[in-house]
């Protein structure tokens, strides 16, 4: 049995490790386009900030660890074509030579590519790139290019295009490095994956740290500045009211989301689904014989909303594990995502799980969303913080559908969103969250945990509506 995993990140490596775990006699090859298998790209902002001092520390496992687990690594090797009928994979190796690799089962984990938005100066003849201080950010290669700019050009200012979670983490990181950061976001509020009421709190944190936040601002062009002094790059944008807006900076980072990397699978005849991602069943099978797929390149099964596209590292790990098991003849199913996520912005954290109000409507629910606040632990014990909460539940059934939180990074926002995620995963009602037996000691919590206070606020309000 020879399993080939294409892609050396969360999905591909998880599939490969699971296969070896289940059958140590199975031959497993991982084909990786670059030389950085099993790196935690989620940690890139903390290497850029300087908090993680050596890029090698971002490796979940070293190459030696992976080889010790029995993985055959083909680094700097690009998968070019899948011959589904012949069960062969055409690759180009580091030396540029083509080779056909025979497989019994194939797991496609080609991940995602950063979106390059239609901004003048980013594509076409004479376009700007890393050498000019203009960057996209996804891979370790991108990271080294950003670090090269930061270390050789020592920029004093940066424009970040995009205020999703990666854009925010990078605003935090570059500010920590001492750069003046200007963040431009075309939507009306930052962190558009949470309700604007919480996004506004995130924006407040950015502003209090000196980040110039320009929402409702669509970047139209990046060009070389004519006069030296303010910064070597000029960023032209237009505001929501149609007024032109211009800023200078010495480096520009474009982080506006990702798209699934599906060329290889599509070329082999795989069906594509939501947002052009590879369609898979819950067992991560593509429908092509002996070809499975997992991670950011596939459609995500959402437990409440059905098929969607939700590229997250947590999901890629789980799907990869399922794919690795099923490649060996198993019958595992991916349990489904709730889009549970958390982001640290300076000293605050924002988190969400499940559905927001408009998403719940789209999924066929009759949602009510209620805002509330609670202390993270008893206020008489030093260091307590308020947590802002938004609970969404179904009016008819009382089922918990979604929770969004914002609070200090020490307020255990991540733990609390995970309680909500567990409750939603198992179909609990909002009322039942109030019954959960959660831990309590005054320095760390309250007899009613913040999450239960939010649940009670929802139940009280929902009864009246
Ligand atoms: C800066 C940043 C921060 C993030 N933070 C978080 C976070 O905090 N929490 C979270 O859950 N998620 C986070 N994510 C998202 C998370 O990293 C991704 O969801 C996850 O890496 C997806 O894993 P993947 O294996 O599906 O794909 P990818 O990580 O995209 O990897 C794809 C792999 O396939 C290889 N490849 C592609 N095409 C070929 C080919 N033709 N031949 C050979 N190899 C190929 C690539 O080289 C790479 O090894 C973050 C992402 C970034 C960029």
Write a brief structural summary.
The protein is α/β, with parallel strands linked by helices and 465 residues long. Helix content is 26%, strand content 28%.
- Assign the structural class, choosing from mainly alpha, mainly beta, alpha/beta, alpha+beta, or little secondary structure: alpha/beta
**What is the tally of helical segments?**
12
Overall body shape: globular
The helix content is 25-40%
- Report the mean per-residue pLDDT as an integer: 97
* Biggest β-sheet: strands ordered side by side in the sheet: 3-2-1-7-18
Euclidean distance between termini CA atoms: 60 Å
Main sheet: strands, sense, barrel:
5 strands, parallel
Strand % is: 25-35%
User: How big is the Rg?
Assistant: 23 Å
Poorly predicted regions are none
